């Protein structure tokens, strides 16, 4: 046994400051096994600030005043300096977040008529249509029923729309890809409600309608996948939904476009055909290059983006860790490749394990930048064999007039000064 | 194709209110396949409140004013009505949360000298001792290094201490088990820092010291498991650590007692024996029934608790969903059994999938209460074969003078009026 550690008698310890120097080291990073370079200084305890007394523990843990985290409220693409009441969506700061779980207050928002403040004691969910019974559920009843929790991404079908036509080089990844977030969602499996009301066999579509003023309503095809995976959700990351995310109850359809996951859910109506609401005739269709429009393009396709280094960041030559997020509405990400030479060659990034189906996956690649201008880009592959397309492929099919489901590989250019900028490819 | 849905022309719809009635239905809940009973009323759209306009989207999503969530600041067991400055821990409201992820502001707190507000620009981490180099890392340097994210529980070794000697029947599960939370943690793998400083082969222990005034410091055995799994963490649930949880950097050792996961981490020192700080001589030892004390009892043992119905709740005869949390510092939960007759017979609860290693697991059991007084209790099993002990076994080994690592099965009694109360067994 050694003697007790000399601390806290700091005064007795050597305080000579060593001259700071940069160093270079090679380390095993486990799965990556790649070379790491860093800059850290040699030093002693004299180089570490003194310990500090603190504030009392409390009922909640606030953020540090040193941490600046916020979303960007936006109207249509390119209109970011707007009056608060004009904002229709608010984007998650992907460049400032790590891991895959999004803090509850920073989950992206997209609303068609603002955020209603619903009283859970008054709110009701009607389930009716092609069913044996028409039932009205209180929120207490939903909370008391069988439940399921699942970590899943939710993504606005408009995510990526900034880059359909042209690349604004002032955009960050928050602008280009901030309409996606990942949460643990909890609620009643849709299948339980279906059993309770006795859905008729012939019913193949379900209308979901929101309690916001617009009454956003969408027709949802009752495939086995949707019947098995859809959650009538009342909680996010362990706590009750926040008003912006549908309090007191919303639909959550993992892997499908966000606007199907109706917030402030007030009714589910079963039928034998799509209900053709204005949202699926006028709004959520995509004009293709051939002049026809895609309708009921409901699944979020495979996607990925490098979150660091990303738009408006600056890097230095030497070691740079490339990290980002990949996701697919089809299932689980199994591979992410990264190119650091504009798409000529590709290297496999390391995926943080476990990768959960229909959740974002975090990837990493150790990279040594030689200081020369280049472009970095990622592409993902899922367990159903889908590979994220390049921009040329997406535009070839869709043209540049569509607004939704842009999932092309995202390229960031890096100039000789290390400035990272949004480019089309 | 049917005609467009009549909504939003609500006025045209039938508004006759049907008399509310209770109903009983049997539904398949998938894995559980159990009978469910519920109460919901027959009704139409007239029974659902009108839709409401809303507030603008913003930079952050606040909680609903209808949601009341807070921790309970506490001093020693039984002292809950205290001045804020006397609180040393603050317990997570497990009875109000669902799923397994804990909201960042509600993760339990335990501090020995309050919550210091450290400036990340000034803070440093020294890594030294039996190493080839002594290095001082800035926070920017740590953020730029290879990283890993992991969903893991963190638990105070004092969790459960309320029930060592006697059962206060006014306690909720927040009181009895609120010193555990689960987050996604992100940071630098300890193994990367070890490679950078060149730890000597003979070093088998590591001292970790905090930057709070107390300078909480613990000796950590460098087993393969700890070397592989420990994270020098700077983020929780995607965002930078909050001050109460160690901002700007802390240790995170999945599965081991919380006080080893040193917050406000200022140095790691490598040695060839434990450093015998006062925390491991005077504080974190457990007096056993035989008069000897356990020292370096570091792993959090297998545990579980029913969170609903739980202490101070009231239930009604009929369908009641039993739900709770199970966890083990050894690995993954593979089974949770629930008894609704005070431990005479047991039924397998359903585990929410996937179950992650060293994270909390959520379990459910459908139950029909017949209205007679009874006791409910859970016991968990992990993938290493550990089974949560009953109270008699725990007390038989430890007596009633220990304070730490109480992991006995938690029993809740239910009287004829449906009142749920904390009892020893």
Keywords:
homodimer; 425 residues; mainly beta; Sulfite Oxidase, Chain A, domain 2; Immunoglobulin-like; five-stranded mixed β-sheet; five-stranded antiparallel β-sheet; 6 helices; 25 strands; globular; sulfite oxidase activity (chains A, B)
List the helices and strands and how they pair.
The structure is a homodimer of 425-residue chains.
Chain A: E1 41-42, E2 72-74, E3 89-91, E4 109-110, E5 124-129, E6 135-138, H1 139-143, E7 148-155, H2 173-177, E8 180-189, H3 190-197, E9 205-210, E10 217-221, H4 224-229, E11 231-236, E12 239-240, E13 250-252, E14 265-271, H5 278-283, E15 286-287, E16 293-294, E17 303-308, E18 318-327, E19 333-339, E20 347-348, E21 350-351, E22 361-369, E23 374-382, H6 391-398, E24 411-414, E25 420-423
Parallel strand pairs in A: 5-14
Antiparallel strand pairs in A: 2-3, 3-4, 5-6, 7-8, 8-11, 9-10, 9-14, 11-12, 11-13, 15-16, 17-18, 18-22, 19-20, 19-23, 21-22, 23-24, 24-25
Describe what this molecule looks like in 3D.
Chains A, B: Its cofactor is Mo-molybdopterin. Chains A, B: Residues 112-279 form the Oxidoreductase molybdopterin-binding domain. The structure is a homodimer of 425-residue chains. Chain A has two domains: 104-289, Oxidoreductase, molybdopterin-binding domain (Sulfite Oxidase, Chain A, domain 2, Alpha-Beta Complex); 303-423, Sandwich (Immunoglobulin-like), CATH 2.60.40. Chain A is 9% helix and 29% strand. Chain A contains six helices and 25 strands. In chain A, the strands form six sheets. A five-stranded mixed beta sheet of chain A has the order 6-5-14-9-10. Chain A is globular, with a radius of gyration of 25 Å. Chain A has 425 residues and is mainly beta. Chain A has helices at 139-143, 173-177, 190-197, 224-229, 278-283, 391-398, and strands spanning 41-42, 72-74, 89-91, 109-110, 124-129, 135-138, 148-155, 180-189, 205-210, 217-221, 231-236, 239-240, 250-252, 265-271, 286-287, 293-294, 303-308, 318-327, 333-339, 347-348, 350-351, 361-369, 374-382, 411-414, 420-423. At the A-B interface, β1, β4, β5, β6 and β7 of A face β1, β4, β5, β6 and β7 of B.
């Amino acid at each position: 046994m050694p003697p007790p550690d000399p601390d806290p008698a700091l005064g007795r310890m050597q305080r000579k400051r060593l001259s700071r120097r940069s160093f270079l080291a090679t380390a095993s990073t486990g799965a990556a096994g790649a070379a790491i370079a860093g800059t850290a200084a040699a030093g002693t305890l004299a180089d570490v600030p003194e310990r500090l007394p603190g504030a009392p523990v409390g009922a909640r843990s606030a953020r540090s005043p040193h941490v600046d985290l916020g979303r960007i409220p936006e109207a249509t693409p390119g209109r970011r300096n707007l009056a608060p009441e004009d904002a229709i969506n608010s984007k998650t700061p992907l460049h400032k977040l790590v891991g895959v779980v999004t803090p509850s207050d920073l989950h992206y928002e997209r609303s068609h008529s603002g955020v209603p403040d619903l009283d859970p004691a008054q709110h009701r969910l009607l389930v009716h249509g092609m069913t044996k019974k028409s039932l009205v559920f209180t929120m207490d009843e939903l909370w008391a029923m069988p439940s399921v929790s699942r970590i899943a991404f939710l993504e606005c079908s408009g995510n990526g729309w900034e880059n359909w036509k042209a690349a604004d080089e002032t955009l960050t990844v928050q602008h280009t890809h901030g309409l996606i977030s990942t949460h643990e969602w909890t609620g009643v499996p849709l299948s339980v409600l279906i059993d309770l009301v006795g859905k008729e066999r012939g019913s193949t579509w379900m209308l979901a309608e929101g309690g916001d003023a617009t009454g956003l309503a969408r027709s949802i095809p009752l495939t086995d996948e949707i019947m098995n995976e859809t959650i009538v959700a009342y909680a996010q990351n362990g706590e009750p939904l926040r008003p912006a995310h549908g309090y007191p109850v919303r639909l959550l359809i993992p892997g499908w476009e966000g606007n199907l996951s109706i917030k402030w859910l007030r009714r589910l109506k079963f039928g034998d055909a799509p209900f053709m609401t204005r949202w699926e005739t006028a709004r959520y269709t995509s004009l293709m290059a051939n002049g026809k429009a895609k309708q009921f393009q409901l699944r979020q396709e495979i996607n990925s983006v490098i979150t660091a280094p990303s738009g408006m960041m600056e890097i230095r030559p030497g070691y740079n860790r490339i990290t980002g997020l990949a996701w697919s509405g089809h299932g689980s990400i199994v591979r992410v490749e990264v190119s650091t030479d504009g798409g000529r060659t590709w290297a496999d990034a390391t995926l943080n394990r476990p990768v959960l189906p229909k959740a974002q996956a975090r990837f990493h690649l150790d990279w040594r930048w030689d200081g020369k201008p280049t472009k970095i880009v990622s592409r993902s592959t899922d367990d159903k064999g889908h590979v994220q397309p390049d921009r040329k492929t997406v535009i070839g099919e869709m043209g540049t007039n569509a607004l939704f489901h842009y999932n092309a590989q995202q390229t960031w250019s890096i100039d000789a000064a290390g400035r990272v900028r949004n480019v089309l490819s």
